[in-house]
Write a structure and sequence with these properties.
heterodimer; A: alpha+beta; eight-stranded mixed sheet; 11 helices; 10 strands; B: alpha+beta; four-stranded mixed sheet; 8 strands
Chain lengths: 374, 398
């Protein structure tokens, strides 16, 4: 057993930490303070990263090897492995600035879009809405069938987060057969989105309807195993981002409690505050090791799907509670939009809902345990 | 980063797994109805006093298991090589206990040697340490007092120097085995000292003039800790364990190393209780439907406990400071065990509340764990203190 980071892992972690410290955190304050010139009634105000800034950040991230993490180097990616990926997303999770390496699953490497996705010229939306409730492929309803000259792909509606992306990646079910994984261009004939709406965390969602005919063969990029690997990989990404968020919340809360005086005493001397932070630190520690162990198993080729699901469930919950505690300890500043905590709070709540709701994942583990004792 | 056991650790784990499968699991039905005294290592001392033929029968079974474990060289695992043991790592001991905990038979491999006894010097080694390693003597641990627990500044027992001797006065509460141990490791402070300063540990034989066992105290868990009184108890300087005035460090070393065993023991106990309950939820039934999500939640939390326990033990093996990890594991483990047992009762219903039922037994035994060796509140205090002193470094990766 050796739980130290290897030289390579340390290098990866430090590279990401440096990028976040030098490029993202200094921009966070200005990002948080920007106001919408016009806020439609009923809509929560939303902030966006400036287009020019985003472009330059992408270039810098690519140069630092913090881009297209899952793609092999031959396809223009960084191919860092899951442990490396966890270490990277953990660092990016420390800021509420909406910028991190995009998820570009390894399965796209053989597709005609690989190079343009790796370069950042094309963007990708993972359309796994039908997997969000259960965390698996059991509820996939989009269908595909073989036709002359390609595949037919149909869906009467799937929610897609970030519908403005250029490409959609989604699992679909063959009539009486297995799951296939497909890439569809946003502008493909027969693909249309409608009913765009904002999510509580400043992302957009829309309903995607598909009635695509003769999708070229090379747009089918995988089967059920690949789709499951994407779910697990996304669960690890969410877990890692959660760890970063919680670390930031804990650090800021410690700092605030050290300085803030109430009724003549520092907050840090109040047991109510001390215990909130003690419990958070223990939870952060446990979630960190669960996540790293799951990622390590993935890198060794061991079964890791159940571990990834547990890591995501526990870490996202922990991040939500971390943000909740940070808000409480910061008082009014906690809910002020010029501080990052309310942003973490809104984002973490969504992360708990993605790739498996808590009760679903728990239930699956419980069923397995009751059946096998494992 | 590598989460695997080393080849030697893995080989040891495999040997213990085999031993558990071949020798211990078959005894489970026998131990299902054993008296509470067969929990932990109590059978090695207290149970021996019993004249109850039933208790004596169980002792005979345990002695037989001990002989079999010795034959496989599985008895002196954590004893240092210079005293004839195998001196395996903390991680290996966690793996060993994890295997043992698969069974409800309360076997601990090895005689109970409190780790601070390795501070024995000179004739202390022959008189106190070696007999404990050989299983000929047992010791109890006298730290807690009627008005003092985890806080050294409250310790009132005194050790007054007088020529070449010390005279110990004071009362110690709750030493387990206090009534049957051959000697006590007792902590007392030098006169006029405060806090952890001046705290000194002494080794005092049972029956030594001025040292008496006042009473044993029945508890919820079947253990009977004692009240000990030291009244002008004169002991020579040669019975100081370690250095004069350095006793608090010994106490912390004793607790620190035990924490990770508490972690893996709680893990095993909770897992067994949950398995028991899972067996009561038939597939497709309403009960299964109702309880599988909370069952799965607790199963997941046990995975979290397991990994931080291994991490803490690994860190201890590296010689790194593990106070933060030790407190975290103690807190998380004992609170989780409590929740698991509570859930198990809820799912199993009143039938599981019969005293002899495994779940009811677990319920009794789990409760003291959140108190002994530092209550959960003390652990939270230690954790927050480390956090405010060292900041986020406490939770960063090595």
């Amino acid at each position: 057993m050796d739980l130290r980071l290897s030289e390579e892992e340390r290098l990866i972690r430090d590279t990401a930490a440096r990028f976040v410290a030098q490029e993202l955190l200094p921009r966070e304050g200005a990002f948080l303070k920007q106001k919408e010139p016009f806020v439609p009634p009923g809509d929560p105000p939303r902030r966006k990263l400036d287009g020019g800034v985003e472009k330059s950040l992408i270039e810098k991230a690519k140069r630092a090897g913090l881009w297209a993490l899952e793609l092999p180097e031959a396809a223009g990616g960084s191919s860092v492995g899951q442990v490396g990926r966890v270490l990277i997303y953990q660092e990016f999770g420390r800021t509420v600035l909406p910028f991190e390496p995009p998820s570009i699953p390894a399965a796209v490497a053989a597709s005609p879009y690989a190079a343009r996705l790796a370069s950042g010229d094309l963007s990708l939306a993972l359309v796994f809405d039908e997997s969000h409730k259960t965390g698996d492929l059991s509820a996939v309803r989009a269908t595909y069938g073989r036709s002359a000259g390609g595949y037919d792909l149909d869906s009467d509606g799937i929610d897609v987060i970030d519908p403005d992306r250029d490409l959609y990646l989604l699992p679909a079910l063959e009539h009486g057969g297995g799951v296939g994984l497909f890439l569809v261009e946003k502008t493909a004939p027969g693909a249309r989105t409608e009913g765009a709406a904002d999510l509580n965390n400043d992302q957009t969602t829309a309903r995607l309807r598909l009635s695509v005919r003769r999708l070229p063969d090379d747009h089918r990029i995988g089967s059920a195993a690949d789709a499951e690997a994407i779910i697990a990989s996304e669960q690890l990404r969410i877990a890692a981002r959660s760890l970063g968020m919680a670390t930031r919340c804990l650090e800021a809360s410690l700092e605030h409690a050290r300085n803030r005086v109430t009724f003549g005493r520092l907050l840090s001397s109040r047991q109510a505050v001390q215990w909130m932070l003690a419990d958070l630190a223990v939870d952060l520690r446990t979630s960190t090791w669960l996540t790293l162990e799951a990622a390590w198993k993935a890198d060794c080729g061991r079964p890791y799907f159940a571990d990834a699901a547990l890591a995501k469930k526990r870490s996202a919950r922990m991040a939500f509670e971390a943000a909740d505690k940070a808000i409480q300890i910061h008082g009014g500043y906690g809910v002020a939009r010029e501080f990052p905590f309310e942003g973490f709070y809104r984002e973490a709540r969504l992360m708990r809902l993605l790739y498996g709701r808590e009760a679903e994942l728990d239930r699956k583990v419980g069923e397995r345990f009751a059946g096998t004792g494992l | 980063m590598d989460f695997r056991l080393s080849p030697e650790e893995e080989e040891l784990r495999r040997q213990v797994e085999e031993f558990v499968r071949e020798e211990i699991i078959p005894l489970e039905p026998v131990f299902d109805v054993a008296p509470d005294i067969f929990e932990g290592s109590r059978w090695k001392s207290r149970a021996r006093l019993s004249r109850d033929p039933d208790v004596q029968r169980y002792i005979a079974i345990m002695e037989e298991l001990k002989r079999k474990a010795e034959a496989r060289d599985l008895w002196h695992l954590d004893v240092p090589k210079r005293y004839g043991g195998r001196e395996v790592s903390n991680v290996a001991m966690i793996a060993v206990t994890e295997e043992l905990e698969r069974s409800s038979v309360p076997l601990e491999l090895g005689n109970h040697v409190s780790n601070i006894l390795y501070a024995c010097k000179g004739e202390q080694v022959e008189r106190f340490l070696l007999p404990c390693i050989r299983g000929e003597k047992t010791a109890c641990f006298g730290l807690t007092e009627p008005e003092a627990g985890s806080d050294p500044s409250m310790m009132a027992a005194t050790a007054t120097p007088d020529g070449d001797d010390f005279v110990i006065d004071g009362t110690k509460m709750f030493p387990t085995f206090g009534d049957v141990a051959d000697f006590v490791q007792v902590f007392a402070r030098l006169p006029g000292t405060k806090g952890r300063e001046g705290v000194t540990c002494f080794l005092v034989d049972t029956g030594h003039p001025g040292y008496r066992v006042v009473r044993s105290i029945e508890t919820i868990a079947g253990s009977e800790p004692c009240e000990l009184v030291f009244d002008g108890c004169r002991v020579p300087k040669s019975q100081v364990l370690g250095e004069v005035g350095e006793g608090w460090k010994l106490n912390q070393a004793w607790l620190g190393a035990r924490r990770f065993q508490v972690g893996i023991r709680s893990h095993g106990a909770a897992l067994r209780v949950l398995r028991r309950v899972a067996g009561l939820l038939p597939p497709g039934g309403r009960e299964r439907d109702r309880f599988s999500a909370p069952l799965g939640h607790l199963r997941g939390e046990l995975e979290a406990l397991r990994i931080i326990t291994y991490h803490g033990a690994w860190k201890a093996d590296q010689g790194l400071d593990v106070r933060f990890e030790a407190a975290s594991v103690k807190l998380f483990a004992t609170e989780l065990l409590h929740r698991a047992v509570d859930f198990a009762l809820e799912a199993a219903g009143p039938a599981a509340y019969k005293k002899v039922h495994a779940v009811a037994r677990a319920f009794r035994h789990a409760r003291p764990r959140r108190i002994v060796e530092g209550a959960s509140e003390i652990q939270r205090h230690l954790i927050q203190r480390a956090l405010f002193r060292e900041g986020i470094a406490c939770v960063e990766l090595p």
